[in-house]
Amino acid sequence: MKILVTGGAGYIGSILVPMLLNKGHAVTVIDNFMFKPNSLSDCCANDNFNVIRGDARNEDLICQEMASADVIIPLAALVGAPLCKTDPIGTQTTNQDAVEMICRLASKDQRILMPVTNSGYGIGDKNSECTEESPLRPISLYGVTKVKAEEAVLARENSITFRLATVFGMAPRMRTDLLVNDFTYRAVHDRAVVIFEGHFKRNYIHIQDVARAFCYGIEHFDAMKSNAYNVGLDDANLSKLELAAAIQKQVPNFVFLEAPIGEDPDKRDYIVSNAKLAKTGFVTEWGLDRGIKELIKGYTILRDSVYANV
């Protein structure tokens, strides 16, 4: 298929784009390369790969490149509450307005698959899991714009959204500021971390399984369309303290302490059910322990905070 990916040089795109190419798809990436990544360099040898340095908010450009696309995957976004707080206008225009534009320009036959954050659930109900039917109560600007964008995508029939748990794992365009990645980086290089809101729970998912979920959605689109799906590990609904303990098993001299300082701007504290996606037949391949082992090896190579969004 002909697939257009905006923001394809980012953390998710740097894994997803090569995977799509390996499956024989023709992929066009539009990215402004704001973080100066070289994450898609290896793709340039593939004749089915096309890359454009441009802005996902440029309607003329998007309209031109969408014309021949079978599938559109809008990854372009300012990701994370701290980054969005520093640029609220860029957040609104990229995370929400640009996606609404794609929905407006797309024909009814074109397929859209979009990632959303499950931080949209906000503070969860202590007595129940968050399912796709749970109320969305985003708190940060990041969460609000992603939820609004999801509404626009699901308002059309030919679409799927994936509500991603906190993503972790190595990627060509690395992000060390995501929670598992961050804690493991500190375990390897600092040997210690101070944790706030240590009992707040959230769900986790490896980036390879995120990319696999998109490929699975393309391959099973007719059966899955017009729905949102939580994407996470059922055995990884963990508190920050439980996560740190899991890392400590592989880095024994890692010390973590809890302190009454700091707060999560998204107030993420919830348990998520991923049963809906599992019922379609999708199976994750990367567990938390395997991902931590991968990160430990990766951080033997990486020692620079330039790989964080903030």
Structural account:
With 310 residues, the chain is α/β, with parallel strands linked by helices. It folds into two domains: 190 residues, 3-Layer(aba) Sandwich (Rossmann fold); 96 residues, UDP-galactose 4-epimerase, domain 1 (Alpha-Beta Complex). Helix content is 37%, strand content 19%. The protein contains eleven helices and twelve strands. A seven-stranded parallel β-sheet has the order 3-2-1-4-5-6-10, sandwiched between helices. Helix 1 links the parallel strand 1 and strand 2. Helix 6 crosses helix 9. It is globular, with a radius of gyration of 19 Å. The two termini are 35 Å apart.
Summarize the structure.
The chain is α/β, with parallel strands linked by helices and 310 residues long. Helix content is 37%, strand content 19%. The protein has two domains: 2-165 and 206-231, Rossmann fold (3-Layer(aba) Sandwich); 179-201 and 235-307, UDP-galactose 4-epimerase, domain 1 (Alpha-Beta Complex), CATH 3.90.25.10.
Q: Which keywords apply here?
A:
UDP-galactose 4-epimerase, domain 1; 11 helices; 7-stranded parallel sheet; 310 residues; 12 strands; Rossmann fold; 3-stranded mixed sheet; alpha/beta
- Averaged pLDDT: 94
Task: Say how many strands there are.
Answer: 12
What does the largest sheet look like? 7 strands, parallel
Order of helices and strands: EHEEHEHHEHEEHEEHHEEHEHH
The general outline is: globular
Considering DSSP H and I runs of 4 or more, what fraction of the residues is helical?
25-40%
Strand order of the largest sheet: 3-2-1-4-5-6-10
Q: Judging by the overall fold, what is the CATH architecture of the largest domain?
A: 3-Layer(aba) Sandwich
Q: Distance between termini?
A: 35 Å
**Rg, alpha carbons:** 19 Å
- CATH fold-level label of the largest domain: Rossmann fold
Q: CATH first level of the largest domain: which class?
A: Alpha Beta
Strand fraction band?
15-25%
Structural class: alpha/beta
